[in-house]
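Because discrete structure vocabularies remain unfamiliar, it helps to consider an illustrative case, giving the amino acid sequence and backbone structure tokens:
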Amino acid sequence: MPARSQRVGSNLDGLTVALFLMLAALGWWNLVSAASGPDGDVLWSLSTLHGKQALWLLVSLVIGALIIQVEGEFFIRTAWLNYAIQIGLCALVLVVGKKVGGARSWFGVGGFGIQPSEFAKLGTSMALAWYLGTRDGWRDWPRRFRSLAIVGLPAGLILLQPDAGTVLVFVGFVFALYREGMTGAVLIAGFAAIVLAVLTILTGAGEVDYPWLGQKTGFTAFVVGLVLLGAGVIQVLRSATLPRYRARTIRIALAVLVAGLAYSSALHVALEDVLRPHQKERIHVLFGLDVSNPDADYNIRHAKTAIGSGGFSGKGWRDGPMTGYGFVPEQETDFIFCKWSEEWGFAGAVFFLVLYATFLLRIFYLGERQRSRFTRVYAYSLGGILFMHLLINVGMVLGLVPVIGIPLPFMSYGGSSFMAFSIMVAILLRLDAERFSVLR
């Protein structure tokens, strides 16, 4: 074996490899239970979901082992090529893709399906790492806009499929941007946007009888109140700001007010005219609003029941009644955490979350110990994406976020997701193994 290969092998982070293999093994074992049900023997066949997932797992491990043998410089030099290919595939799937669950986001290949949006996360991570890693980072507005455009282009194509859940995962790139210099003001603006969105949803769901206008949604009153509040704040700023800063401060306040009104109005229009009725109902159920469909909260209600039925120690493997007899829908994919929690209880759920959190923290640690800015940005991108998947998926089954269809990486059934994240982890391991010998 060449000396360089020996050095890379000895520098490979064993803890990250062990955590990854543990998550993959637990996910597959949990999927066996979800796919086989509580009765009868387990069918070991490639025609079953767990059989197909085992094949994806094996292929992904082989690809990962091959990636670790590749020079890290190759990934840097091909970052933009990778990004361009993923953008092309995300555009092509809009034309020739197969429609699954209302979204045209799949290429059908025999009995298997490939979802290009999963691999777009890889391409975007590498392109963003190249741009921020070979430039001066988040220094001026042109670089900031280009960085956001790198993330926004694939996200926009995925939104056209439409796959809003995957688009939300792209928010995870904020971790990398913040690490490279994005100010806390952006995070404050993001929090303000969340608050404004909640108020828009709540007021838009109610109805008010207005003089001369008749009965309309409460959103109109909300807009009026927002304008009056903004006018009051501007008046206070006018009297409290020094004269030399007054004009600039008022312009900024007006810009913020106009942006808030535009954002709230666009969100209201999207809720009323763009979202499908069942999507709107899921959002209303999240906030405890009345809906006309009594089964609108079916998924959440049964998911919570399944988790609660597990108690402290769980029902045991293949012995969960709620998931075993099909009361929880999509338990092999989006609601896989319900299956795990019912069978292994509160203790098992905590163990899994701690294991996953340890894996995420290890990825961020690998990023922090790099001499290479490229590898650091890439590690933070990977960690941020995985964190968003975990946050949204677990929050969804607990009823804390709307049901939007997000898999739990390494646990949910899905070859595209598993392979894409396995490749991303393998690339990080290779780049990290070269940290002592390569400066980028």
